[in-house]
């Protein structure tokens, strides 16, 4: 019997704890690219927790999710959303703020059967092992990749693309992320980008730099119909960094800035002052620790 790795256990716990169906029904699908045949077995896929007001995204060709790094439920929301969009009929490209240098490891993991050996190979990448853990290389991000792997094995058409670039410094990262996403985009697919909330802004500028151009600005210039959503949550804890040193990162209390107790989408009447078209809510804030630390513990 194959023993599940950390990612498998986390994804299994997520799916069990958030057992739900789309509009009260299971989502049924056949394996990708398979032609219907008499007596063919049809698999049921449960994407995750129900997302209230999901219809607010109808017709959006690109969706930006601007997150607070280091939260457990945000990657769960992203993979849940990707699954629901894919099972509704269109393939999904899930773009992540992970360096493109990790793409080969991600592809290999997604094509594997999972488990400790394949998980360890994925986590051997520099992104997961770096001293400065800013919340992106978290247990929840690992669980997201395991959930995608499991969904793909059942025929759900989700493709993961790493769009950050470890070789690009400073503000140029945003242009590189946008370029990476646009280059990887395929006709007919819905693009979902999960990135830090600043990167998802579709209007330029920040209090410390009035001229900075975020990835969302570049993306809206190419895809005017995109929808950019800011992260909202109830009070709790998150893995956050208060500086640029590894010692500046840890679990900290975060104030709530949302109202919904569970997954929910809200669209604004118009784009706000920093370029968001609405919010995605995740309920209570729960911290997600670095996946690297889990690996060390197991060893």
Explain this structure.
This protein has 299 residues and is α/β, with parallel strands linked by helices. It has a single domain, classed as 3-Layer(aba) Sandwich (Rossmann fold). The protein is 30% helix and 22% strand. Strands 3, 4, 5, 6, 7, 8, 9 and 10 form an eight-stranded mixed β-sheet that branches. A two-stranded antiparallel ribbon has the order 1-2. β7 and β8 form a beta hairpin. α1 packs across α6 and α7 packs parallel to α8. The C terminus is likely disordered.
Q: Quick summary of this structure?
A:
It is built from 9 helices and 10 strands. The protein has 299 residues and is of the alpha/beta class.
Keyphrases for this structure?
299 residues; Rossmann fold; eight-stranded mixed sheet; two-stranded antiparallel sheet; 10 strands; 30% helix; globular
């Amino acid at each position: 019997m194959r023993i599940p790795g950390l990612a498998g256990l986390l994804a299994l716990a997520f799916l069990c704890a958030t057992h739900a169906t789309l509009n009260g029904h299971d989502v049924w699908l056949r394996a990708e690219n398979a032609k219907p045949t008499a007596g063919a077995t049809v698999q049921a896929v449960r994407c995750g927790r129900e997302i209230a007001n999901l219809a607010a995204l109808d017709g959006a060709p690109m969706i930006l999710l601007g997150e607070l790094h280091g939260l457990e439920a945000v990657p769960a929301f992203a993979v849940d959303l990707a699954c629901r969009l894919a099972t509704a009929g269109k393939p999904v490209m899930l773009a992540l703020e992970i360096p493109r240098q990790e793409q080969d490891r991600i592809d290999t993991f997604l094509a594997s059967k999972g488990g400790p050996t394949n998980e360890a190979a994925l986590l051997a990448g520099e992104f997961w092992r770096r001293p400065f853990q800013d919340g992106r290389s978290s247990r929840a991000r690992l669980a997201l990749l395991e959930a995608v792997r499991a969904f793909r094995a059942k025929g759900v058409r989700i493709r993961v693309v790493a769009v950050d670039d470890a070789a690009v410094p400073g503000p140029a990262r945003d242009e590189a992320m946008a370029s990476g996403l646009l280059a990887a985009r395929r006709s007919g697919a819905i693009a979902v980008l999960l990135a830090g909330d600043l990167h998802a802004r579709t209007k330029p500028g920040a209090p410390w730099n009035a001229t900075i151009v975020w990835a969302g600005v570049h993306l809206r210039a190419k895809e005017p119909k995109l929808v950019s959503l800011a992260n909202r949550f109830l009070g709790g804890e998150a893995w956050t960094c208060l500086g640029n040193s590894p010692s500046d990162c840890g679990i900290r209390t975060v104030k709530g800035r949302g109202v919904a107790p569970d997954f929910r989408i809200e669209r604004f009447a118009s784009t706000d002052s920093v370029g968001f078209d609405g919010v995605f809510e995740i309920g209570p804030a729960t911290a997600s620790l670095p996946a690297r630390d889990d690996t060390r513990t197991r060893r």
